[in-house]
Amino acid sequence: MELTDPPLGGAAPAHAPSSDASLAALLAEEFVPRRTTYLNTATCGILPRRGLEAARELAAAAAAGEPGGFGDFGRVERVRERFARLVGVAPGRVALGSSVATHVGLIAAALPAGAEVLFAEGDFASVINPFVVRGDLALRFAPLEALAESVRPATALVAVSAVQSADGRLADLPALRAAATAHGTRLLVDATQTAGWLPFDASPYDYTVTAGYKWLLGARGASYLTVSEEAAKELVPLHAGWVAARSMWDAVYGPMPELAEDARRFDESPAFLAYHASEAGLELLERAGAAAVHARTAALAARCREGLVALGHAPVPGTAPIVSVPGPAARQPELAAAGIVTSARAGALRISLHLYNTEADVDRLLAALSD
């Protein structure tokens, strides 16, 4: 995807632009110096300084038995609002939880027995397994590049990652939307490896799920479900606790008087440490601006791919900052010992770059691989 292409999903959510100088100042302010060359955001992102401080403050308050140690629901609601702005939907379409698999499980549970679900071959397990364990659904798999043409009238749902975790390939979401609309098929998009580096509009999809601890610069335990008004009517809030009530403080004891009218009825009780830590990352992305983050990550990924080709490697083609290189996966432990953090996935070395990375980070990796 070129920088001039539209964002995944439709019109780009509005974010303030950031100059090179202001972005550099923001990054210097928010990220502490690292002992490692960290090239592993697709596994876990780096917390901004203020996210770390927020988690420490909450943990200290809890250890001291202070009232603030319980956690701040106001902060949780700000996280919901910031995420909603990032992906271009109203806050009322966003439910908060602890993991992508839990959100997907809610969707899987709503399907009738025998319903057909279509997946991309080799997609991430959390997108697939909640449907597999049902045991009574008709599951089909197709190559990512042929997914749209594989949708048929019998397909109840397509579940796909917008960007593949293993190698950074992008799904053709416009084609999938067209095919799903033509056949009356629901569409579930996992934006975990997308939102935070690529402008992503969640509004056209029945469901999106996003983990908060990778490109969104948050912590494990924060995840986001967006659901359309029509699709929401098909979901049952199976794990509804008091926070899913229309008035949660009136629903602490006894049967729930009334569910929230919007997507909050699908909320899990928040993991406060994760949500306190995650607010800073979402704010940083908003301040940086989606276009600036996209431009920075795309340029770093291009430098990395070009350098790998010059070394005789053949990275998976693409523009995503997830760079997959078949061949040198066995060198991942060696790189880690040298302070260069990558991962090995699907038989390849996976390098993943975010806005806190620099050209020097890429060059250090390339120099190590050239030895």
Quick one: biggest sheet?
7 strands, mixed
Domain tally: 2
CATH superfamily of the largest domain: Type I PLP-dependent aspartate aminotransferase-like (Major domain)
How are strands sequenced across the largest beta sheet? 2-8-7-6-5-3-4
The total count of strands amounts to 12
> Compute the gyration radius: what is it?
21 Å
CATH class of the largest domain: Alpha Beta
CATH architecture term of the largest domain: 3-Layer(aba) Sandwich
Strand content: 5-15%
The helicity comes to: 25-40%
Give the structural class.
alpha/beta
Question: Overall mean pLDDT score?
Answer: 94
Terminus-to-terminus distance: 32 Å
Kindly report the CATH topology of the largest domain: Aspartate Aminotransferase, domain 2
Give unreliable regions as ranges.
1-6
Helix and strand element order: HEHHEHEHEHEHEEEHHHEHEEEH
Number of contiguous helices:
12
Tell me, briefly, the overall form. globular
Characterization of the model:
The protein has 371 residues and is of the alpha/beta class. It has two domains: 20-47 and 288-370, Aspartate Aminotransferase, domain 1 (Alpha-Beta Complex), CATH 3.90.1150.10; 55-286, Aspartate Aminotransferase, domain 2 (3-Layer(aba) Sandwich), CATH 3.40.640. Helices cover 36% and strands 14% of the residues. The protein has twelve helices and twelve strands. The chain has helices at 20-30, 49-63, 73-87, 100-109, 125-132, 147-150, 173-183, 229-232, 272-288, 290-310, 332-337, 359-370; strands at 37-38, 94-97, 116-120, 138-142, 155-161, 186-190, 207-211, 223-227, 322-326, 340-341, 343-345, 348-352. The strands form three sheets. It has a seven-stranded mixed sheet with strand order 2-8-7-6-5-3-4, with helices on both faces. Strands 9-12-11 form a three-stranded antiparallel sheet, covered by helices on one side. α4 (100-109) packs parallel to α5 (125-132). Mean pLDDT is 94; it is low at 1-6.
